[in-house]
Structure formats: C-alpha cells, structure tokens
C-alpha cells in the first residue's frame, strides 16, 4: 500500500477511535453495575409481572460483589477481627457458627480455603476447586461472587446465566419430580414451582459432594438439599432466601441467604464476563501466589 | 526489608484495621498493617483474571532495580472503580501505594494513592 493511501487511512481510523459516536456505541457493552448503586436511573415501570422472573438481576449493591451472607462465607471471623491471619483448622469463635456434625467438622477441616477468614491459607496452598478453575457447582456459584444474573424463562424452564466462571443452571418448571437416585452433577437437579403469583420455590438435590458450599470451604455431602425462595416484592426487586439442608454435615437446616435483594437492571444491560482461565491462573500463581508464600518450604 | 531489594519505596503508614479484599484469596500473605509507596516505571500492564497486574521496575538511590509485581482485583471490579485496559502503558512513571507481602518479596496489592505520570488517579466510589 502506498504511503499516500496509508496516511489518510490511519487518520480516519484515529478519528473514528475517538469519535463520540464510537464511544457511545461502546457504552452499550460491558456495563458494570454501579458500586454504590442508587438504581434511580432507568427503572422498569408498570405493574409487577405475575409468575415471571425473567430479566437481568443484580446483587452487587447488597453484596459489595460478594459475601454478605447469613453465615458470611468470605469473612468468617471472631468479634475481634476479620481473620486476616487465617490458619485456623475450624471456625471456633466466629460470630455466626454453623451447626456442624462431627463428620461435618472433619470435612470442614479437610477443605483449605484461600478466601478471607479465620481458616484462610496462602493462595498457593488452597484446595479450593475455584483455585483450579474447576466448576464451582451449585450453590457455591450463588454464595460467592453473586453479581449479575441473566434469567431466561421458557414454558418449562427457568434458566439462570451467570457470567462469573461461566455458570448456568436450569430449573425445570414442568411439574416433574426430582430424581430418586441421581448420578451426581455439579449443579444438581433443580425443580421449581410457583406457590403464588410472586413467589417461586426451587428444590435442588444431587450435587457432587466434592464441591464446596462456599468460598470458606463449608462442606456438603450427597444428602445436600437446597431450597431457594425467590419472592418478587416489587417490579424491580426480588428477594432470595436460601436454606441449606444436609443432615450428614449439619445438625439442623440453616439459611445461607435471607431475603437477599436482587435489583432488576435495564433490559439492555450487557453483563461483563468474568471467567476463570487455567492458564491465566497459572501465570498469576507464578507471579504472585508463589513469591508471597510465607513458608517457602511448602512450594 | 524493602531496602534489601534495592527499591525506591518507603513505609508510609501503619493501618490499624485490615480491610479484606473481595477476591479469590485473602490477605494471609500480605502485611495489611503497612502501606508502601512504590515509585518506578511500568514495564507491563496485564488486564486479566483472576487479578489485574502492573509490573513496575523501581530503582533505589544506588541504582539497584527491583522488579515489582503489583496486583489489583479482577477486570470487572477494576472497571467499576474507573480502571480500564488503557490505564497504564509501558514506560509510565508511577507512584503506587501498596500493601506489601509479609515475606518482603517485591509483590504487593495496590490499595490507596495512584499517581501516573505526575497525575493522581481517583478511583470511582
């Protein structure tokens, strides 16, 4: 290509890159929910739809993008601090202890989380599935980094798509029964039903026992059953309550989420992706996690 | 010690309360009671998961260079704070407040004042 042609082409491209029109188009992509959201902008109007969860729902306002759960997964700590040192085997002394069985306590100790909390270990030493970019499974995907969900509803399914780790799950609404003796799956088997026009209840069973409940390494067994209740309290607000039932690991059911509000985003909101790449993770471990390891003999 | 690595940094303050990051890892490996200012030249800026990384070469008074690797959060979180893939470029002169590693390796978490080519960058709230 001649120099006479190249110069004008470069000039045109440069002008285009900085043009208001191009920037306006870019604003349609990778929308990030406001961190201190007011949600006073483009809100949907009109009556609350009946028996409808479809839309783009954001939890970041409440969660601060993670972890404000009933039994905080990210920051299980005692009253005197947030557990920055980590290193404890169990959760003794934390402010909201879980009702572990002896088997549950044993399983907890085997899980070595790197997330903030009293049990955290150096990042390189964790056996967290997330640290290998393994599938999180359910309910881990909802109890860590629950940010923005794209919910699609069909005649027989509610499909929940999360950009975090590329998770998705299918909830059947065709009145089928949960499988009696299922092959375990990362996300388990979910069936949902409307108990009234604005309350949707989901029962999930059959999750793989090797997955964790959350980023703090809370364990579960093959007996885990999770009940979610989605209550649409207004057109733009959904409340999510999640009950954990696992008699092998916990002496009684407990609430992981209690009326956690999810906010309806504009229908043109483009959720940015947040995927786990094994090669990027390996590079991170080489550049950061390995050098900062406190006890280098454990490398 | 920071000086051991020949770096142009200094201890700024001791923070009484640690503020855990919302991240795939906690703060166990980092000294959350300290803030260190790293002044140097950006060698590489990596906009990737699980953490955005800024590699900075910093010289001390004797001309010794330390190769810092400084992490932020993931790109989505950083974008919500006003960062972008174009925020740093190789050759930028920067001054970054960081939480240093406990074991004194030249690795840290970016947290606090950010100055790029003499201009302070204010993160979105």
Span from first to last CA of chain A?
A: 54 Å
Largest sheet of chain A: 9 strands, mixed, barrel
> How many H/I helices of chain B?
1
Helix content of chain B: under 10%
What structural class results from the helix and strand content of chain A? alpha+beta
Order of helices and strands of chain A: HHEHHHEEEEEEEEH
- The outline of chain A comes out as globular
Write down the Rg of chain A: 22 Å
Mean pLDDT of chain B: 83
| Series of secondary-structure elements of chain B, N-terminal to C-terminal | EEEEHEEE
Strand content of chain B: 35-45%
How would a textbook summarize the main sheet of chain B? 5 strands, mixed, barrel
Structural class of chain B: mainly beta
Q: How are the strands ordered across the major sheet of chain B?
A: 2-3-4-6-5
Output mean pLDDT of chain A: 83
The chain pair with the largest interface is: A-B, 51 and 35 residues
What does this structure look like?
The complex is a heterodimer of chains A (299) and B (125). Chain A has helices at 3-17, 20-26, 60-63, 102-110, 140-143, 278-289; strands spanning 55-58, 148-153, 157-162, 167-172, 189-196, 199-205, 225-234, 237-245, 254-264. Chain A is of the alpha+beta class and 299 residues long. Chain A has a nine-stranded mixed β-barrel. In chain A, a hairpin with an 8-residue loop joins β8 and β9. In chain A, 39% of the residues are buried. Chain B is mainly beta. Chain B is 5% helix and 43% strand. Chain B has one helix and seven strands; from the N terminus they run ββββαβββ. Chain B has one helix spanning 75-80; strands at 9-14, 34-46, 53-59, 65-71, 93-100, 107-116, 119-121. In chain B, strands 2-3-4-6-5 form a five-stranded mixed β-barrel. The longest helix of chain B has 6 residues, at 75-80. Chain B is globular and about 40 Å long. Chain B starts with 8 loop residues before the first strand and ends with a strand. Residues 1-22 of chain B have low confidence and may be disordered. Chain A binds chain B through residues 30, 32-36, 64-67, 74-75, 81-87, 114-117, 120-123, 126, 128, 130-131, 147, 215, 272-277, 280-281, 283-284, 287-289, 291-294, 296, and chain B through 18, 20-30, 32, 48-51, 53, 69, 71, 74-77, 79-81, 101-103, 105-107, 124-125.
